[in-house]
Amino acid sequence: MSSPSTYALIGAGPSGLAGARNLDRRGIAWTGFELADDVGGLWNIDAPRSTVYESAHLISSRTTTEFTEFPMREDVADYPGHRALMAYFGDFADTFGLRDRFRFGTEVTRVEPAGPSTGGWDVTSRGPDGTTTTETFAGVILANGTLSEPNVPQLEGEFTGEVMHTSAYKSPEVFRGKRVLIVGAGNSGCDIAVDAVHHAAAVDLSVRRGYYFVPKYLFGKPADTLNQGRPLPARLKQAIDSRVLRMFTGDPVRFGFPEPDYKIYESHPVVNTLVLHHIGHGDVAVRKDVARLDGQDVHFVDGSSGTYDVLVLATGYRLHYPFIDRQHLSWTGAAPDLHLNIFSPEHDDLFVLGMIEASGIGWQGRYEQAELVAAFIAAKETGSPAADRLLEQVHGPRPDLTGGYHYLGLERMSYYVNKDAYRRAVGRAIKELSA
Asked: What is the pTM of this model?
């Protein structure tokens, strides 16, 4: 029996589209699977597992986020919203002829190694009509994203009002006339607080630790476009940027936030200073961490309490690859243990795209991941020694991708990298495979 030659690509968001484009560039056959009815991933607000909301915009600017080979139009805003981004992904897919090989409305339910006679992977999927099909592929590329499975903490006690995770939030109309407590002050939590002040009776923000708040504009330009040259050493950049932030946004402690117990960039900063504006105007109150729930009362660790109608959990997301056994991804801790966050040491025909988080890495960082995967598959198919050399690295110690930063040891930081260190490592690997 002949071995399969087509790769299964799961997901049609930014990483999936980057994967499709780069497989095409190398002449590698692929079939795509996408649960939604269109490309765009989480930016498709109508998708079944989309977690974006009506007011969602990029927190990195257009020019630092876009695919390099496919810039956004000049008339697109500096920080476009989800509708503009959906149009961009649609144009990308159409320009490179990617749509016709994605099976939309199709959910992958199981991925497992095929029998030894054929090799590859069996992929079971359920189509729009409910029909279940199992097919064998040469390999599998997981690109189904990292922001779809809510992280729901177990809080002591019981809340008898309405409880929702930010993943279910779409419009601030749900807060009209209500007392709202948002637990967590990351980017989504602060966005929703800013939305809520125009509709809710009261808005409180419960925080556990301190944050660094980065403005979207400095000196009239998108802040992330000002330092695009040679990266500064970590400690120097932290020292300079901390001083700049204090000049432009002040000390968040003055607004009621705890002093951060880490240096800037050791956790993802909050790219939202509007929340500070509303706190300064009394529209939002900062509360301490939640101690326990009691009916509609919430007690905080400093002994204070408040009464609320709605509890919003802005508590982030968990990695979610439910259709494949964790052992295939060497998943022993908070995240799969993959070389460059891509290559499984268990299988040389299983890859993950998009399992990276880094300040400023943009979609181009995901595109380069896809370029590396396609280069490896092409090298392996031709028997290139470069593919064997990469596999030796896959089974060796993990490279340092921190760029000198000491990231917080939190679950959500378990696949965090420094964009410059990461892109250099991926670029070297691509060059070695393509030589």
From this structure: 0.95
Which of these, 305, 309, 313, lies nearest to 185 by C-alpha position? 313
Cβ-contact 319, 335 below 8 angstroms: yes
Q: Which residue is listed with tokens 């089974």?
A: 395
- Whether the per-residue pLDDT at 252 is higher than 80: the answer is yes
Strands of 59-166, DSSP E: 102-104, 107-113, 121-126, 132-137, 139-142, 149-150, 157-159, 162-165
Provide the β-strand partners of residue 352. Answer: 142
Cβ atoms within 10 Å of 149's Cβ, excluding its own: 17
Phi, psi of 23 (to 5 degrees): -65, -40
- Residue for token pair 């979609």: 363
Backbone angles phi, psi at 212, to 5 degrees: -105, 130
Q: Does the pLDDT of residue 56 top 50, yes or no?
A: yes
Give the burial class of 55: count Cβ atoms within 10 A of its Cβ; 0-12 exposed, 13-18 middle, 19 or more buried. Answer: middle
Read off the amino acid at residue 47: A
pLDDT tens for each residue of 80-117: 999 999 999 999 999 999 999 999 999 999 999 998 87
Q: Which of 13-22, 227-236, 388-397 has the least mean pLDDT?
A: 227-236
Q: How many residues does the chain have?
A: 435
How is residue 395 written in tokens?
């089974």
Nearest one of 137, 38, 145 to 89, comparing CA atoms = 38
User: Is-contact 42 50, C-beta < 8 A?
Assistant: yes
344: buried, middle or exposed (CB in 10 Å: 19+, 13-18, 0-12)?
buried
Half-sphere exposure of 36 (CA within 13 A, CB side): 22
Tokens of 392: 């030796």
How do beta strands 350-352 and 139-142 pair?
parallel
Structure tokens at 37: 């009815």
DSSP for 358-382?
A: -TT-HHHHHHHHHHHHHHHHHHHHT
- In degrees and rounded to multiples of 5, residue 141 shows phi and psi of -120, 115
Within 8 A by CB and 6+ apart from 212, the residues are: 242, 245, 252, 260, 264, 265, 269, 270
In whole angstroms, give the CA distance from residue 299 to residue 294. Answer: 8
Distance (Å, rounded) from C-alpha 234 to C-alpha 237? Answer: 5
Helix, coil or strand: residue 124: strand
Find the helix or strand (DSSP H, E) in which 7 lies.
Answer: strand 7-10
Q: Find, among 131, 86, 140, the residue nearest to 113 by Cα.
A: 140
pLDDT attached to residue 3: 66
Report phi then psi at 390, rounded to 5. Answer: -65, -40
Token look-up 């209500």 returns 178
Output 433 or 118, whichever has higher pLDDT.
Answer: 433
